[in-house]
């Protein structure tokens, strides 16, 4: 339980030397006298071969966690390595291991850097002490936090800054990097991994998740600390939490997560048997005690994968507005498994409105009960979902929803370049219980090539219904819609009179109705090019054309309305008006040969011919259908609108020559 309490800033390093601006280096292992007396401030740390490891041991942090609302509480400061308020605590070396150790700087600055050989770390004086720079570091080493270790710059005034820089950074066992702020704005928390950042698991007593976290204290009026995370690959698993919340008057800090390769959010954990599992989550929440709003979470990566109950989330449990999720995955996004979600949540007792979920990715797959959703469980409105993608596949109960209990349903906007594919009881819904149904807008005509396909009898539905209020609106612009049936309220009274619920019918449907009030049905507007054969027969127009306008009345007259061409044979051109081409066969004239010799030729039996009685050619006057449904041209007018031609007076076409 030992602790080190320092009166000023403190820097612990395994560097070979301190470098001053006059190129003098001070080295404990190889001391050299300076050329003259100097009081210069060092400008950097030089690491030569194999920087040494720094290890800090301790009893771990005192965080507590409420699994119902995903709330962290910071208890009195635990013993650890601490500096005076507003000062800098820095550890710079090779590998850095915090084994239950706590690094504490109340409103100050904490620097943790792990560097490899031949590195130079710059030192810049600032009001709080020093700021370290890693521009001239060719490679980094690893940092680990285990056994509830912590890096904590919290303050009742304004939280301080934290910068953690390494190659692979790993937090486990309920360890934490965090900053709570009070009356003043919090400083930025930055975690930068050249390779992989891994945040996983909970404490050994199964009570506190591992976390990277910033927050505004209850009754705190300052803006929360911004959280910036960068890595090649980010993995969060086993109930770990990454994010920024507010419990007070101040807004939560912004969260920026960037991974050049991938972000993986995996799994959940049971902390309280009476409550649902705690999802592994990256998010921002306006907690129940807050009056300040949520904030924006920006995530940029190449591949985003959320599985087995992991979540990207923004939400409100208070009167405050939930934040915004702005997600860009340049290659693909995949959600799979029950509970897996990209979501904005309004808690059941909250009056604030839900946030907006924005996703831009070329390929989106949502399957196995995973969802993108805005969920209004309180009286606030649900929020919005906006997805831009080349392809969207909803499989095995996958969904995109914007539903509300008391408030109005949210809106769903889908801009799809190529196709939207729905199968296995998937759903797109803006359903509301007490409020009005939300709106669904699907556009696949941006490049004039997209279409929508649903498994026809797979219970794949597009729903903008309301239980009590006005039904919503469904607007679809597409080259083609296949496998979906548009259903009115009258259809549901016939097909599902007991509940009017499309989720309980095996067909795939588009609907926008009010279940309790027939006069409050919404609208379905389909702007399509292709017709879906599954929609049964297409109604034909009743203004049929007049046969007299479709059939030439005098086909025997040469050069009027008709043309007949015989394709050339044996070197002849296709028509008398065209010249020969180079590909035609040319045969020269030959001189007949006479011979005195007897010649014998085979006798060829010509087939017998039988005369065929001549029949007059009569211009057709119309057509009828025979008993086989075939079209038969007639020499009379079947409509009776013109005088009938008498077969005894019919004349043939006049001779042309």
From TrEMBL:
<protein>
    <submittedName>
        <fullName>Filamentous hemagglutinin</fullName>
    </submittedName>
</protein>
<feature type="domain" description="Filamentous haemagglutinin FhaB/tRNA nuclease CdiA-like TPS">
    <location>
        <begin position="1"/>
        <end position="163"/>
    </location>
</feature>
<dbReference type="InterPro" id="IPR012334">
    <property type="entry name" value="Pectin_lyas_fold"/>
</dbReference>
<dbReference type="Pfam" id="PF05860">
    <property type="entry name" value="TPS"/>
</dbReference>
<dbReference type="InterPro" id="IPR008638">
    <property type="entry name" value="FhaB/CdiA-like_TPS"/>
</dbReference>
<dbReference type="InterPro" id="IPR011050">
    <property type="entry name" value="Pectin_lyase_fold/virulence"/>
</dbReference>
């Amino acid at each position: 339980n030992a602790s080190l309490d320092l009166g000023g800033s403190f820097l612990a390093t395994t560097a070979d030397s301190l470098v001053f601006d006059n190129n003098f280096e001070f080295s404990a292992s190889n001391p050299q006298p300076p050329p003259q007396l100097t009081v210069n401030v060092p400008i950097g740390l030089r690491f030569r071969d194999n920087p040494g490891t720094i290890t800090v041991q301790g009893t771990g942090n005192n965080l507590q966690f409420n699994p119902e609302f995903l709330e962290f509480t910071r208890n009195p400061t635990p013993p650890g390595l601490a500096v005076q308020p507003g000062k800098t605590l820095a550890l710079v070396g090779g590998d850095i291991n915090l084994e239950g150790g706590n690094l504490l700087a109340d409103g100050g600055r904490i620097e943790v850097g792990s560097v490899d050989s031949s590195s130079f770390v710059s030192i810049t004086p600032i009001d709080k002490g020093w700021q370290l720079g890693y521009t001239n570091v060719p490679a980094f080493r690893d940092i680990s936090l285990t056994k509830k270790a912590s890096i904590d710059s919290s303050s009742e005034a304004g939280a301080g800054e934290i910068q953690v820089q390494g190659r692979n950074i790993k937090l486990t066992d309920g360890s934490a990097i965090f900053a709570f702020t009070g009356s003043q704005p919090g400083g930025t928390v930055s975690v930068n991994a050249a390779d992989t950042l891994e945040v996983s698991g909970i404490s050994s007593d199964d009570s506190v998740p591992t976390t990277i976290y910033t927050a505004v204290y209850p009754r705190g009026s300052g803006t929360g600390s911004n959280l910036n995370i960068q890595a090649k690959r980010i993995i969060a698993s086993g109930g770990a939490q990454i994010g920024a919340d507010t419990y007070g008057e101040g807004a939560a800090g912004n969260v920026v997560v960037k991974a050049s390769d991938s972000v993986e959010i995996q799994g959940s954990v049971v902390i309280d048997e009476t409550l649902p599992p705690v999802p592994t989550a990256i998010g921002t929440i306006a907690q129940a005690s807050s009056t300040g709003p949520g904030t924006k979470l920006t995530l940029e990566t190449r591949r985003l994968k959320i599985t087995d109950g992991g979540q990207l989330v923004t939400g409100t449990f208070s009167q405050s507005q939930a934040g915004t999720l702005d997600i860009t995955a340049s290659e693909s996004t995949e959600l799979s498994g029950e509970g897996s979600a990209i979501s904005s949540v309004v808690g059941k007792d909250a009056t604030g409105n839900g946030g907006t979920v924005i996703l831009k990715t070329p390929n989106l797959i949502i399957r196995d009960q995973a969802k993108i959703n805005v969920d209004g469980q309180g009286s606030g409105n649900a929020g919005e979902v906006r997805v831009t993608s080349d392809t969207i596949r909803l499989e095995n109960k996958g969904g995109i929803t914007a539903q509300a209990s008391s408030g109005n349903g949210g809106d769903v906007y889908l801009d799809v370049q190529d196709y939207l594919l729905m199968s296995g009881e998937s759903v797109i819904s803006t359903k509301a219980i007490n409020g009005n149904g939300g709106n669904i807008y699907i556009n696949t005509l941006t490049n004039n090539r997209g279409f929508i396909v649903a498994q026809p009898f797979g219970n794949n539905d597009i729903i903008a219904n309301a239980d009590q209020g006005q039904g919503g609106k469904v607007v679809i612009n597409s080259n083609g819609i296949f496998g979906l049936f548009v259903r009115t309220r009258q259809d549901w009274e016939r097909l599902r009179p007991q509940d009017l619920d499309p989720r309980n019918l095996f067909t795939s449907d588009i609907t926008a109705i009010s279940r309790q009030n027939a006069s409050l049905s919404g609208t379905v507007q389909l702007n399509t090019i292709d017709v879906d054969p599954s929609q049964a027969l297409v109604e034909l127009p009743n203004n049929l054309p007049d046969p007299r306008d479709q059939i030439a009345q005098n086909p025997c007259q040469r050069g009027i309305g008709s043309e007949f061409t015989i394709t050339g044979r044996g070197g002849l051109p296709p028509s008398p008006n065209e010249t020969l081409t180079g590909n035609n066969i040319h045969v020269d004239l030959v001189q007949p040969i006479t011979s005195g010799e007897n010649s014998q030729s085979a006798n060829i039996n010509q087939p017998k011919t039988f005369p065929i009685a001549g029949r007059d050619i009569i211009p057709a006057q119309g057509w009828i259908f025979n008993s086989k449904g075939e079209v038969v041209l007639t020499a009379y007018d079947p409509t009776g609108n013109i005088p009938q031609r008498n077969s005894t007076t019919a004349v043939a076409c006049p001779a042309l020559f």
